[in-house]
Amino acid sequence: MPRCLPHGPARLLRRVLPHHRRDCRLGQSPGRRQARDLADAAATRRRGGHRRYRRYLQYRRYRRYLQYRRHGAVGAPMSESTANQPDACADRLPAGIRVFERGWLSANNVLLIDGDDTVLVDTGYVSHAQQTVALVEAALDGKPLKRLINTHLHSDHCGGNALLQRRWQPRTWIPAAEARAVAQWDVDALSYRATGQQCDRFSFDALLEDGQSMRMGGLDWQVIAAPGHDPHAVMLFAPAEGILISGDALWQHGFGVIFPELDGDSGFAEQDAVLRRIAELDVRLVIPGHGSPFADVGAALERARGRLDYLRADPRRNAVHALKVLVKFKLLEQRQMTRDALLQWMAQAPLLERVRLRHLDGAPLPGVMEQVLSGLVKAGAATVDGEMVRNSD
Questions:
Q1: What is the pTM of this model?
Q2: CA 31, chain centre distance (Å)
Q3: What is the span of the domain harbouring residue 337?
Q4: Looking at the structure, do residues 170 and 94 belong to the same domain, yes or no?
Q5: Phi and psi (nearest 5°) for 86?
Q6: pLDDT tens across 265-297, in order?
Q7: How distant, in Å, are the alpha carbons of 118, 197, 262, 336, 381 from that of 234?
Q8: 241 shares its domain with 327
Q9: What are the tens digits of pLDDT across the range 145-169?
Q10: Are the CB atoms for 56 and 37 separated by under 8 Å?
């Protein structure tokens, strides 16, 4: 049966909890609940209930995931607006494809399963890495992860690579142009130092190039270059089903920041070419890097073109938008910061400093920070209480 994650918590708990315990456990203390769970597991094994025991293990993994989320160890992984909603894309995705919709700090993860062949596309941010492993482990139900693919190497798409490699040693594919930077672990070339973000070091085994073909989830896929947001990014397209894994080249309501333009390199023209390329394909369903999968591709392309025209008309708009995105990302990671800590982080992130000098006429950084915070507060993306700045989802 086709499935598109995330599952609502109630939906998953209904599958893995014994019926007579389903509701009462959630109100127990952690110690008592754990003791009861262990006792139930032992009794289940004695009765030979192997299937229920596997479900119990799945439940324990999901409990671990919920604990990460509840206690703020890794932040909120999924879009709260969609986590408990019906799966609008479930009837369009083949049974071998599952989408873990993660929100904005972590990019979506796409898990493709065809028998023993298992592939994960994109792995989220490093602070969500344990969570990513737990989600993938639960979905694989004992199978190993064989392959790992990155649409591009921004920190929110490959931050889980290292932990996944330690867990399963999957064969890892990255865009070809990033091979040297990853081999030497050049954090400047990989943008992590420039953006003030983090990513644990990982290795790679193979390279993705435009025009390449590969088989995943029982489907044949084409690798398509997607410069614009990132000069080395790729998309994955399955012609038979019309499914496009677009990364940050196309979302339902836009696309990722055009980063090359921030340093004076070409990016708008490349993004325009990517949108034209998508329009030429017979795309019937898009799995984006952020947000829910969607089928109204024509409307999404029209919105993206309008957005691109708006940014091209005044490149300063792209710069201001980039600052808001980077600050919001930091708040998603930290949840809250003092004004002084945020100002210090902005001063130490080289890309933000270059944007200030190139696009904002060297305006004083404190004033730039206030402008950015004002925009985030107005959009409901942050709150400011005296000296404390807090993320607002």
A1: 0.79
A2: 33
A3: 316-391
A4: yes
A5: -60, 150
A6: 999 999 999 999 999 999 999 999 999 999 999
A7: 20, 21, 20, 33, 29
A8: no
A9: 999 999 999 999 999 999 999 999 9
A10: yes
